[in-house]
Every structure is written in structure tokens, then in C-alpha cells.
Design a protein that fits this description.
GO terms for molecular function: transferase activity. This is Glutathione S-transferase family protein. The protein is an alpha+beta fold. The chain has nine helices and four strands; from the N terminus they run βαβαββααααααα. The chain has a four-stranded mixed β-sheet, with helices on one face. The protein is globular, with a radius of gyration of 17 Å.
Length: about 220
Amino acid sequence: MTITITAFERSPDRGRGLARDMRVRWALEEVGQPYDVRLVSFKEMKEPAHLALQPFGQIPTYEEGDLALFESGAIVFHIGERHAGLLPDDANARARALTWMFAALNTVEPPIFDRALARIFERNEPWYEQRLHALEVSIRKRLDGLSRRLGDADWLDGAFSAGDLLMVTVLLRLKGSDILDDYPNLSAYVARGEARPAYKRAFAAQLAVFTAASTS
């Protein structure tokens, strides 16, 4: 059965690999599974056909036979459960990888994503500077703990796992910022993720969509 995922027809990230379908593309590339991509417009994302797959009108979704999933973390976990390469065989190591998946999405990502939104939508508000400062303080607290835990290791818990995949995609929103630059081991960690052949293939596929949309 062919796997089909959805992605933005015109991604707001302008081809930087930040849209959440990137996580699913990368996971599928890591495990060597082919997939099709159905591009959806912002209008189509709010229509009944898409809402039947994703009740909040977002991307990505995942379809395989009679299975339909949404939420990028859940999809990556499903891919890791079905195919070797993202979750360890050892039960304890597998549980730790799952812990890092939750940590990436529930602990580290929220203030990083909120900062990205504030920089776009709240820049002209009177509370902008105070809001941005509070978010950056929160981000640094998360990164302090993450940096200490990673230390000089390549990955969070031995071999590369779905936990690293999600964590790298979260940290990519800080790439090139003073915040991430203050944590050399995390900057190097992100660079290792980007250097993986599966990441490069996924990034090229997502960039091609943006390039095609820009020239159409």
C-alpha cells in the first residue's frame, strides 16, 4: 500500500524545511519507505475532505490503506513502530527514545514556536519586546537542560533515533539565531542531523515544492 502524506501547496516557511511535513518526509527517508505527497492549499485545508483527515485543518496527514493519521509526532512514532531505523530494539532504549520524542514536542518546541509566531504577528504590539524576552528566557532554560544532557555525545541516547529526528526539527527554528549559537554542542547536533543523507533527501523534496510554487 502506498503511503500518502499531505503538505503545503505554498509553504509559509519559504523552503527552509520548517513545515511539519518535513518530519514525516525525513522519517520515511530514514526507514527507506517510498511515499506520495498530496499538496493542499490553505483553502483546501479548511474543507470537509481535509478536515475528515485532520480535524484542526493542518498538515501533515498520513494515509496508508484504511489507516489515516494526523499530528507529526504520532506519525513519526507510527513509522518507527512499523519500520526499522528510528526506534531501538531494546525495550528500555525504545522507551527513552519515546521520552525524547515527547520532550522535543511538549517541552522544547512550544516556546520556540511561540517565539517564531510572535516575531511575525506581534512585532507591532506594545508588549512585543517584553513578550519576546519572556519567550527567549524560557527557550534558554530548555536549551540549558538539553545542552547539559547532550554533552559531547553525537545523539541524545546512543544511536540516532526518532527522538533526535524530532528534536533537530524543533531546534532548526533557531538556526542562525544568537540563541542557538550560544550552545555550540546543540549547533553541532543540528548540523549532524542536517548532514544525514535521509534529511538531505527530505529537504530537497520539500524545497522542490516551494521552488515549483514560486515559479508557477
